[in-house]
Write a structure and sequence with these properties.
The structure holds 3 protein chains of 3 kinds. By secondary structure, chain A is mostly helical. In chain A, 69% of the residues lie in helices and 3% in strands. Chain B is globular, with a radius of gyration of 22 Å. Chain B contains 12 helices and 14 strands. The chains are: A mainly alpha, B alpha/beta, C mainly alpha.
């Protein structure tokens, strides 16, 4: 390989070594830093830390890229600047919406549950089942054209995702089964179901035996087309915006939102306060499954176009990160979703223009997440230098 | 259509037409879109070797770019568009799932040439498709397997039941059964493109159930290692040569060799002679390489295998030649008849003699 | 269909080997969770262990050194997680996911020049002739050292948690970190050590895949085993021996479905491939009747003055 970045003798040994030095060094901070809780979360820090995190990522990422033999400045500008302000921004800006919408849509639903301490980590499975149901509902009518088909598909997608999430929900309420495990297991089941559908029931009869369904982009009644051409604005983006507003209102204005927050912070108090925990579990899992299902449905009928073995690309898992990066706050999730989308798009540009390996982009994204998560502490705590943990 | 206009004008500004190339001042830019990491040691790894061969062949006259781990669907469409915007003259898209995205992007960039691997859609004059007749290599494997098995049980690890894999199973079975009518195929579908641990398990199960030859349509060396551990089990390299397991258990291999095709097509773009076509090349054109047959194979068998290879290469023999029946006993090919490419491309049935059903 | 082709003795032996990576990763994560920390980065630590073990084994020629390196690699990576969650008090779920992303990328970078290399062979039967005893031989004595190491770690974890003071302290920290702190235990130090133990075990599990089970290096080769290990801990209701049971159950069903396919049983394959996950869910529902619950402080951030 021409672009072997570490040759066997020198680099590969030095690399884990570098890691070995770096991470204990960070960790040593434990001994010298003391945290003091702020009486009130700092507003200034809440805005400053994400910016600081991005700056730190640029510095450390730059070092990484330099080690890999690339111009760090060029790499950083390619990732962050090129998609938004570069020569072809007219193309990349809409792509941000296409890539960000499913992340935001799923993350909004997850955040409601996470706030209440209900852990749906199987959104990937609900996304797949939503897509299968949505596409299936549309393809059942092929080639008939009707304005009713698309709404029906939306309904089917939402129901599919909801139903898939109801499995861990009902098991938790009825038997006390752990929802983390069941929802995660159901991701693998959904993946097998997807393979089976691509090879069997939904296989394109005119596809010469190849796996994968008909392309819904070529079936006008079922196509989730751009609402205004060239903007990237499809119905999934609209749905994500509606979900954000819905979640915002729910959390700030509605008693259910209050119940969610109280349950997350003090479950016993919530119980005494009249919150029915079973119903809350079903609501949170149901709504997150529904939104994930919708995301899958809008993706399969629009940008992706068809059910195939590899239809799912991990949005359901990435959305968990997005939810936390957005501090479980609807507006924060929008920002986090767009930031993640930016690093994906900019990362692909950097790969092709600078020859950076995909793995370097992954490490870079990991760094960004680390810094965002680590610096958040400054919002709620003041840092004092001194002796570490006193026991 | 504001968007299309923008793309078109951007393409014009960059001089994506052939004019800039003809005078030889500008490098020809070739893009590659990969579905896996180039470190997968299999499918994508071999395509990337083809890319490096293009660089080696044309040196300064060519610039290659690639993006790895590109998901099928909107991500691939974005990456292809990005390459076209960045001035690529020729783009190879190397996964079946890129079929519709490739055609979508090709519609927007009529001056950029697109080459889609393993697909069948060429909706625009600037889209070609190419694929390899790996089943020719399977025929040779089948022959060697049929001769070398003592238990008469041959194990086969399949990824997903798609025509490409089924065709390989049929081809291997036909030629194994031809030299050894008692041979029985045990087929395990792992339902994943990539999970080395699962491939290892599947190989071990096949060996435990009596298989002393294991064929694989998955790309890891896990089955080779399992065979070595068990001892006395024959395997074949897949996608890459897997020569590290030669001379035994790996006695030969099927190698994906995209280099000749990539070089030829890049040259065609440079010369301005590129034309749409549907390429399905096999051993003859060098797209399917047969790795060295080791001395673990008896000399006479090796000779027969090489003769079979030569006959497949010069076209005097077709791997699917009648008389052949389908699994249910219905006639498939009459005496001397050969299968047409359409039937082969969409093959979704076993030939007579293979037991079990294709999962649907 | 020919069920007689399935050899139950070999099936059990294969199950034990197949379960080992999951077992190692899961027992490590169990200790982490008993200390009250939820680390979802198991997959990232496993793949890092897989590549570290592979690189060192290829360069030194010694699988033993390789496995040690794998454990160190996993533990070092886990320190990043420890820093985030124990020092910077970041959310554990998000930190764990970020760790997986980071680990997958880092391992791919480190392993770039190791694709297509065959590692030195790890000796498989240290117990030699005992493996020739019928029935019991292949099942009990026919394995490599790491299989026994995995079992030993399970036993040691069980004994430590149940009988020793260290185990008591660890559980106290996991059940109620505020009370443990009030009693004078260094909550963060204990949790950091637990996280490192989890990282080391995950690293060993990863190296078992890249050095013994497959053996080769390819990007992303752990292919989701880390997630199964996470699920197993919950499945086992945080009890060491049940982790062993769960790992064998999962490994056994996976092996069985491959065996059934090989024997030509006419069940649709995709449903067979689903079966390990569905059976896990069903068993979990049955076990839910047992009221053992998660450590009290699991997933919650601890800060002394907060």
């Amino acid at each position: 390989m021409s672009r072997n970045l570490f040759d066997k003798q020198s680099g590969a040994g030095a690399n884990p070594l570098g890691m070995a030095v770096l991470s204990p060094a960070l960790w040593l901070a434990l001994l010298f830093v003391q945290l003091e809780k702020r009486p009130q979360p700092s507003k200034a820090m809440a805005y400053a830390t994400p910016v600081l995190a991005v700056v730190l990522t640029m510095i450390f990422g730059g070092v990484l890229f330099a080690v890999l033999g690339k111009d760090p400045l060029q790499a950083i500008t390619t990732i962050f600047w090129e998609p938004i302000f570069g020569e072809f921004a007219f193309f990349y800006r809409p792509q941000l919406l296409i890539k960000g919408a499913p992340l935001v849509l799923i993350a909004i639903g997850l955040a409601l549950g996470f706030k209440a301490g209900i852990w749906n980590i199987g959104a990937e499975g609900q996304y797949i089942v939503g897509a299968i149901c949505g596409a299936g509902a549309g393809l059942a009518f092929y080639p008939a054209e009707s304005v009713l088909i698309f709404p029906l598909m939306v309904l089917a997608g939402a129901l599919g995702g909801w139903a898939w999430a109801m499995i861990p929900g009902l098991l938790k309420v009825k038997f006390g089964t752990n929802e983390i495990l069941v929802s995660l297991m159901l991701v693998y089941v959904a993946e097998q179901l997807l393979a089976s559908m691509s090879l069997g029931l939904l296989k394109n009869p005119e596809g010469f035996g190849f796996p994968g369904s008909r392309n819904l982009q070529q079936y006008p009644s079922a196509h989730n087309a751009e609402i205004i051409t060239g903007t990237g604005m499809h119905w999934g983006v609209v749905a994500a915006l509606i979900a954000v507003i819905f979640a915002y209102v729910l959390l700030t204005r509605h008693s259910l939102g209050f119940a969610i927050r109280v349950t997350g912070e003090a479950p016993r108090a919530a119980k005494f306060g009249g919150v029915n925990p079973g119903r809350l579990v079903l609501f949170c899992l149901g709504i997150s499954g529904l939104l994930a299902g919708l995301a899958g449905m809008f993706e399969v009928s629009g940008p992706s176009g068809q059910i195939s073995i590899d239809f799912n690309v991990g949005y359901g898992f990435t959305a968990i990160i997005v939810a936390f990066l957005g501090r479980l706050n609807p507006l924060g999730i929008v920002a986090a979703g767009l930031l993640m989308a930016l690093t994906y798009i900019g990362g692909d540009i950097a790969q092709s223009q600078l020859g950076l390996p995909a793995a370097a982009i992954q490490v870079f994204q990991g760094m960004l997440l680390f810094f965002l998560l680590a610096l958040d502490v400054l919002t709620n705590y003041r840092v004092r230098f001194g002796k570490g943990e006193t026991a | 259509m504001k968007f299309t206009t923008l793309l078109a004008s951007a393409a014009m500004v960059l001089g994506l037409g052939g004019a800039a190339l003809a005078d030889g001042h500008e490098k020809t830019k070739v893009g590659f879109v990969y579905v896996g990491p180039i470190g997968d040691g299999g499918w994508t790894y071999e395509h990337d070797k083809g890319r490096l061969a293009v660089e080696a062949e044309f040196g300064d006259k060519v610039e290659t770019v690639y993006v790895e781990n590109v998901a099928e669907g909107p991500d691939s469409e974005r990456v292809m568009t990005q390459m076209a915007l960045d001035g690529a003259d020729l783009i190879f898209t190397t996964s079946f799932g890129y079929m519709d995205p490739t055609n979508n992007v090709a519609a927007k960039f009529p001056d950029v040439k697109f080459e889609h691997a393993t697909g069948y859609k060429r909706l625009h004059p600037n889209v070609s498709t190419y694929s390899a007749r790996f089943y020719e290599g399977r025929a040779i494997q089948g022959h060697i397997a049929g001769k070398m098995t003592k238990s008469n049980i041959i194990g086969y690890i399949g990824s997903f039941p798609i025509p490409e894999v089924i065709r390989g199973i049929n081809s291997a079975y036909i030629h194994a059964a031809k030299v050894n009518p008692d041979v029985e195929f045990k087929i395990i579908w792992v339902y994943t493109w990539f999970d080395p641990a699962k491939e290892a398990d599947a190989a071990k199960v096949l060996i435990e159930q009596g298989a002393d030859v294991v064929l694989q349509h998955t790309d890891s060396t896990a089955p080779q290692a399992a065979a070595q551990e068990a001892g006395g089990v024959v395997t074949f390299g897949q996608a890459s040569d897997m020569g590290q397991y030669a001379p035994f258990p790996r006695v030969s291999s099927i190698i994906d060799d995209w280099a000749p095709y990539y070089i030829a097509r890049t040259r065609a773009v440079m010369d301005g002679t590129w034309e749409q076509k549907d390429t399905w090349d096999g051993i003859g054109a060098g797209m399917v390489g047969i790795g060295e047959i080791t001395d673990a194979v008896p000399a006479d068998v090796k000779e027969e295998a090489l003769a079979l290879k030569a006959a497949l290469a010069d076209g005097s023999y077709h791997a699917f030649t009648g008389p052949l029946n389908k699994q249910d006993g219905s006639p498939f090919l009459a005496e001397g008849e050969t299968a047409d490419d359409g039937t082969l491309a969409g093959m979704n049935f076993y030939v007579e003699g293979i037991e079990g059903e294709i999962p649907q | 269909m020919d069920l007689s082709a399935i050899n139950p003795i070999l099936l059990v032996a294969a199950m034990i080997a197949a379960a080992t990576p999951i077992l190692l990763a899961a027992i490590g994560e169990l200790v982490v969770e008993r200390a009250g920390v939820l680390n979802l980065g198991v997959e990232g630590m496993m793949i890092t262990g897989a590549v570290c073990g592979f690189i060192i084994t290829v360069n030194t020629g010694s699988p033993t050194v390789g496995f040690i390196a794998a454990a160190i690699g996993g533990a070092v990576l886990s320190l990043l997680f420890a820093f985030l969650t124990q020092v910077a008090l970041a959310n554990q779920v998000a930190s764990g996911l970020a760790l997986t992303l980071f680990g997958l990328g880092l391992s791919a970078l480190m392993g770039q020049s190791y694709v297509g290399i065959k590692p030195p062979r790890t000796e498989s039967t240290p117990l030699g002739s005992l493996a020739d005893i019928p029935v019991i031989g292949p099942i009990v004595f026919g394995h490599d050292l790491i299989v026994y190491l995995g079992l030993a770690i399970v036993a040691a974890t069980w004994a430590t948690l149940k009988f020793t003071r260290a185990g008591l302290v660890l559980r106290a920290v996991g059940e109620n970190h505020d009370a443990a702190h009030a009693l004078g235990y260094k909550v963060k130090r204990i949790r950091t050590l637990a996280i490192m133990f989890g990282g080391a075990c995950a690293g060993l599990g990863g190296a078992y895949i890249s050095l013994i089970r497959v053996p080769q290096w390819t990007e992303g080769m752990t292919a989701g085993v880390g997630w199964i290990a996470l699920a197993l801990v919950v499945f086992a209701s945080w009890k060491p021996w049940r982790v062993l049971l769960g790992a064998y159950l999962f490994g056994g069903i996976t092996q069985l479905q491959l065996n059934l396919q090989g024997a030509g049983v006419a069940i649709p394959v995709e449903y067979l491939a689903m079966s390990p996950y569905i059976v896990t869910i069903i068993v979990l529902v049955i076990l839910s009747a047992d009221k053992s619950r998660a450590p009290g402080s699991l997933g919650r951030t601890f800060h002394a003055s907060g």
